[in-house]
Write a structure and sequence with these properties.
The chain is an alpha/beta fold and 484 residues long. Among the domains are: 122 residues; 214 residues, Rossmann fold, CATH 3.40.50. It contains 12 helices and 7 strands. A 7-stranded mixed beta sheet has the order 3-2-1-4-5-7-6, sandwiched between helices. The two termini are 71 Å apart.
């Protein structure tokens, strides 16, 4: 796996710093190791020879033997013969000593000359070595400048490369901007075409529903009765009045079918959303009645799980669509239908997105009848929009012109409890997606206490607004009739 670029750059920088450190340490150690030129001591002074010539002149202390005759000569001869041996030994000693001193003096003179020559040679070598060390230090110190010139060359090349890349990136950015503009225009046209297509599909669906409704409500054609021979012929001068056509709400029922198809969601979406209600009715001992069953999605789910179910809906087209699919659905008013049923006859009762369409007095009557008609232990489930969530109220509730009264979750729970259901609970459903909620902000690194307090206050207000505006789109009140 290749190393990331930023990690590679950091590693190379660390290696360069480490190499610089080692180089500087080695250069400093070399500089310290160069011996300082303290100078050599002068050679020993030359031998003192100022008495040497005198010694060579006076070493012979024996005079010449006396040569005069007579008594004085004889007396001198006796004395000479007496002391001559002693003086001869002194003369020998003096001769040996002077010879030794002469030889030693010559050796000292030669040694002094060698010391002078060695000192001169050493000084010349030390001067040459010091010069070499100095040039060596200068040489090593040039490495940094030399490497820097190479770096500058590389930097110049990098600048040229960066300039070329910048030109290339600028050209690429302009090209991408051009592509983005074209893509934006394409997306705008595609969006417009998609919207037009959806509008056309909606209009076509509404037209098909209208045609189907008209076909069902059109009177069968029949031949006009034969006119009596004795009956007078109608006047040609006065037109016959056209009979008035009474208004039938069933003729407009198809419009709400199209409304649900467009705004509530497809049947598969609704079935998936209502799947979680099945566990409330799995133990039902009688039919589950779906009030306002609409297109019959929940009846489909119940039947698929072997739970007996039937439905009622006041919308003629909805009932017709369900019956066309083989579902047990009756076109009827909910209160009127429940009043015809025996008490304790229903295993369960379900109404999704219905109670918000009812007037308060009608709703109270419906709840009383629901409690009466359910078997002991039977479950009542009422799903409706959550008006406590502002998004649900403004996005969905006011869109439907058939809505009559928004019901707060606690209000509906209270009404269910007041109608006899001793066990009632609220279940919130369809949460607003997280990406659609207000988002808190993070505290920047290094921010001071005042900024921290500001961020904390802002985030607290975000949570408060989310709790009012972006919570749950729907809720359900589940009531259970106590067992006998």
């Amino acid at each position: 796996m290749s190393e990331p670029l930023d990690a590679t750059l950091r590693r190379l920088e660390d290696e360069r710093d480490e190499a610089d450190r080692r180089y500087n340490e080695a250069l400093t150690a070399l500089d310290v190791a160069v011996p300082s030129h303290t100078g050599l001591p002068d050679p020993q002074a030359a031998i003192d020879e100022h008495q040497l010539a005198t010694l060579n002149d006076v070493w012979n202390i024996l005079p010449a033997p006396p040569s005069t005759g007579g008594l004085k000569g004889k007396f001198a001869g006796v004395i000479w013969r007496t002391i001559a041996p002693y003086l001869q030994r002194q003369l020998t000693f003096n001769s040996v000593l002077v010879d030794h001193v002469n030889r030693a003096a010559e050796a000292q003179r030669a040694a002094h000359r060698r010391d002078l020559e060695i000192t001169v040679a050493l000084r010349a070598q030390i001067d040459a070595l010091n010069g070499f060390h100095a040039r060596l230090m200068v040489y090593f110190q040039q490495f940094t400048a030399y490497v820097d010139t190479r770096d500058r060359d590389a930097g110049g090349g990098a600048l040229v490369l960066n300039a070329a890349l910048s030109d290339l990136a600028e050209g690429n950015a302009k090209y991408r901007e051009s592509l983005a503009a074209r893509e934006h225009r394409y997306e705008a046209r595609t969006t417009a075409l998609t919207a037009a297509h959806e509008d056309l599909r909606g209009m076509l669906g509404v037209a098909q529903l209208a045609i189907a409704a008209l076909k069902r409500h059109a009177a069968p054609s029949s031949s006009a009765p034969a006119r009596s021979a004795s009956a007078p012929a109608p006047s040609t001068s006065v037109p016959a009045p056209s009979p008035s056509v009474p208004f039938s709400p069933a003729l407009d029922a198809y419009k709400y079918v199209g409304f649900e198809d467009q705004f509530r969601g497809s049947q598969s979406v609704i079935r998936e959303r209502q799947q979680s209600y099945l566990p409330f009715f799995t133990d039902s001992r009688g039919d589950v009645l779906d009030i306002g069953c609409g297109r019959g999605e929940f009846i489909d789910l119940l039947n698929a799980h072997g739970i007996p179910a039937r439905g009622i809906d006041l919308n003629h087209e909805m009932a017709e669509l369900c019956r066309a699919r083989g579902l047990n659905v009756t076109e009827a008013d909910a209160v009127a239908y429940l009043e015809t049923l025996p008490d304790d006859s229903l295993g369960g009762l379900f109404a999704a997105q219905v109670v918000e369409h009812l007037e308060p007095s009608y709703l109270l009557r419906l709840l009383d009848l629901s409690f009466a008609k359910l078997q002991p232990g039977g479950t009542l489930v009422l799903e409706t929009l959550n008006p406590a969530c502002w998004t649900a109220f403004f996005e969905s509730y006011i869109r439907d012109i058939t809505h009559r009264w928004p019901l707060h979750p606690e209000t509906l729970k209270y009404l269910v409890t007041a109608s006899g259901f001793t066990r009632a609970s609220i279940e919130f459903r369809s949460p607003v997606p997280q990406q659609d909620r207000l988002q808190p902000i993070a505290l920047p690194a290094g921010a001071d206490a005042a900024a921290g307090e500001l961020v904390e206050a802002f985030n607290a207000n975000v949570e408060k607004l989310n709790a009012r505006i972006f919570t749950f789109m729907d809720y359900a009140v589940i009531g259970v009739k106590a067992s006998a």
